[in-house]
Design brief:
12 helices, single chain
């Protein structure tokens, strides 16, 4: 791959299990001295739904820091990255702003440059304003909020939101009004059957920029996952539900979408179980129709390619992912390709040259 276009990667995650508060910090401290014991304990001790969601524990159970990302992304001319909140566990008081402070200093000496930060705020909290201000005071790169809304009734699917329909709750929407006041964007992550929530929110808050993460993750669209996708008819239901939702959301001019996250195990491709990663042609055959549909609905001015690393790393390498992206748009004019890989992300996340 000869990548001549500069790239902003607008969706990555970083974690340091021993030195920052994460879900796996305690088991890492207790058992991390023995990697085999540690990973065996996670493999047998984690909830079945959690194991299924991540596909394997080995690549999420270790630290993932700028040097690791730099090694993964070698060969792709990454200029800047956007860090999206990654389950920071200190959530009392202004605790969530600790992730923003940590990130602000984390990248400074590294070759990979931090362009923007999307932090966590629980918008139901009565003191949400104070948490937002703590983020702002922690870094001038803080530009937006993500509070994950992805929720499914199936116990076999890891939910990232404590209740269905959180975004319609009056107290939550009252907190959401703060995004207008502070001119912050909202990274919206939902499953395919929840896309109507984003449509409603975008209509209710037309002055807020919404970034739809991972194309509105379509559970089981590629094959069996939990109760989804077990036959062609079931996958067709997912596809049609997803297409209807994407088309509706795309009608809102204040929504952009990340072309990303299509290789998480929850989509049902099963790539995470293979000894050898899929080849380019198979990736194109299976996912190009999804990417092309979103591009047609939103247009090149409202789409941005992103890696979602290391979460998609379970299925393919960074280089394979960006080779796929390059092939998807190789027939577009160079200025449009630059929008998808760089310019749109710079605009949406207010990244300075």
């Amino acid at each position: 791959m000869n990548f001549s276009i500069p790239v902003i990667d607008p969706h990555i995650h970083q974690w340091d299990l021993l030195n920052t508060p994460r879900i796996l910090s305690t088991p890492k401290r207790l058992l991390g001295w023995n990697r085999l014991l540690y990973e065996t304990a996670l493999r047998y001790g984690a909830k079945k739904s959690d194991r299924a969601y991540v596909g394997r524990t080995d690549y999420v159970a270790q630290d993932y820091l700028p040097a690791d990302y730099g090694q993964d992304s070698g060969g792709v001319p990454i200029q800047k990255v956007v860090h999206v909140e990654a389950e920071w566990r200190h959530r009392k008081g202004n605790g969530p702003a600790g992730e923003t402070r940590w990130l602000h200093s984390l990248f400074e000496p590294e070759a990979v440059t931090l362009g923007a930060i999307v932090g966590y705020v629980d918008l139901q909290r009565h003191d949400a304003r104070h948490v937002i201000e703590a983020h702002i005071n922690s870094s001038d790169k803080f530009v937006g909020i993500r509070q994950m809304l992805a929720n499914d009734a199936d116990d076999g699917i890891m939910s990232f939101c404590p209740q269905p329909g959180l975004s319609i709750q009056p107290q939550w929407r009252s907190g959401f009004e703060l995004l207008e006041e502070y001119q912050l964007s909202f990274d919206a992550w939902v499953f395919h059957h929840q896309l109507d929530e984003i449509d409603q929110l975008a209509k209710r808050f037309p002055s807020v920029t919404f970034i739809l993460d991972h194309m509105g993750t379509a559970i089981g669209i590629g094959g069996p996952f939990a109760s989804y996708g077990h036959n062609a008819a079931a996958r067709d239901v997912v596809l049609k539900t997803w297409q209807t939702g994407i088309a509706a959301v795309a009608e809102n001019p204040n929504v952009v979408v990340k072309l990303s996250g299509q290789f998480m195990p929850v989509l049902g491709w099963g790539f995470e179980h293979r000894a050898v990663a899929p080849g380019l042609q198979e990736l194109l055959d299976k996912t190009a129709p999804l990417f092309n549909f979103v591009l047609q609905q939103f247009g090149v001015d409202r789409c941005l390619f992103a890696s979602n690393f290391p979460m998609d790393k379970v299925s393919l390498s960074f280089r394979q992912l960006y080779e796929l992206y390059a092939h998807l748009v190789q027939n577009l004019p160079q200025p449009d390709q630059k929008k998808l890989f760089h310019d749109n992300a710079a605009r949406v996340y207010k990244i300075q040259p």
